[in-house]
Structure formats: structure tokens, C-alpha cells
Amino acid sequence: MSHQRVGKCIIINNKNFDEKTGMNVRNGTDRDAGELFKCFKSLGFDVFIYNDQTCEKMERLLREASEEDHSDSSCFACILLSHGEEGMIYGTDGAMPIKTMTSLFRGDMCKSLVGKPKLFFIQACRGSEFDDGIQTDSGPPNDTLETDANPRHKIPVEADFLFAYSTVPGYYSWRNPGRGSWFVQALCNVLSEFGKQLEIMQILTRVNYMVATSFESWSEDPRFSEKKQIPCVVSMLTKELYFN
Fold this sequence. Notes:
Helix content is 24%, strand content 23%. By secondary structure, it is α/β, with parallel strands linked by helices. The chain has one domain: Rossmann fold, CATH 3.40.50.1460. The strands form 3 sheets. A 6-stranded mixed beta sheet has the order 2-1-3-7-9-12, covered by helices on one side. Helix 1 (29-42) packs parallel to helix 4 and helix 4 packs across helix 5 (200-214). It is globular. GO terms for molecular function: cysteine-type endopeptidase activity. Keywords: Apoptosis, Hydrolase, Protease, Thiol protease, Zymogen.
């Protein structure tokens, strides 16, 4: 980190949805938001939580953030907690393309973040498939869960983005109503212990391992029982990133 500030972190926490969307209340998400706030604050971010945002409000919020001056910041982070589908994220009133929000921070749109990491953490479903897993030496199953269905040279406008998805394309993402989502639990656990020591890809690799090995769904409905999950990281970062 070579600037005065680590940077801004926006958490959009969507729990309640309009009836017309057909989406259930996301119980446990407030715990996720609270834990993420503490984790990213401890890393030096200026953290802001916005609850129950419509699609229009989400886009406006991130557009305003992209138009701010980030010259004295080392990076930018955005965390989306909501229902989702592949390539889509839900506002309280319906779904919108994730790219609509992330593209606001491209190099040609947000000049003060050119060459700086732009991190997006997305806790949401990316489809309706289940991961049944394959038997290994595994621990005890979990509780009942819910799902979420310097730049003098040119830099590509899509460079320096990192997307950390809670699950792979096409699959459900699991959330415990009491303890929060598997992905956020693991992310906060690893960040709390290693956030100021390890590089971001090392951190997220450990998150992948923790989600893959420490969590398994349990439900009285066998269709939703003994399911697994693996997060997915897509990186276009051009430099290593340490939060220290």
C-alpha cells in the first residue's frame, strides 16, 4: 500500500425484497455485513454499509463512488450481499447485470483508480445447481441452511479488477440463518488471521479451502442436504496486493 489511504469499501446488504420478485428474506445477512464491516475496517478501509437497495439505488451509489477522487487511495472494494443468478445481482425490486455496476470502475470511466486494484466480493447464487461433493475424510455436517438463490504507458481498461464469487457459475450459494453465509464466514476468518500478512490470492485460496472442507448443508428435505460449495476467484490484477 503506497498511498495515504487504503481506500473505500462499500457493502450493499440486501435482506428484504419486494413481493413481486419472489425472493425470500435473506436471514443471516446482517451478521455477514457486520463481520465484513469489522474485517475491512481493521485492514484500514473506510467502510460504508447500505441496506436494502433497489437496482436504481445500487447503480447510483456505485456511479457516485466511481466519480469520486481516489488519488490518495491504494484500492477500492465493493461487497454485494444479495440474491443472484449467473451474471445478475438482485436489488430489492428486481435483478440487474453485475457488469452494469462493475464497469463504472473501468480505466476509461474512473481515472483515479487506473492501475489500482478494484475488488468485488459477491455473495449470491449464480444458478440453481447443487454440488453433491465427493466423499473424502470430512467433518460433521452444518446446521439447516438457506440459499442465495503510474501510468505513462497504456493499461487495458479491464485491468486490475478482482472478482471473488461465493460460488462457481451455475450453482447455489449457501447461507446459515444464524451464522451467515459460508463464503463470508470463511472470508472474515481468513482476513482476521492473515489479512495483513498474505497476498490477496493466497488469502482467497485459503478461503476456497475453508469453504470446500469445513461446510456441508443439512436439511430435513433430502434435496437440500449434504451439499457442498466452492468459491470462484476471477483476477485481472496486474500486481500483488498486500493489506499492510
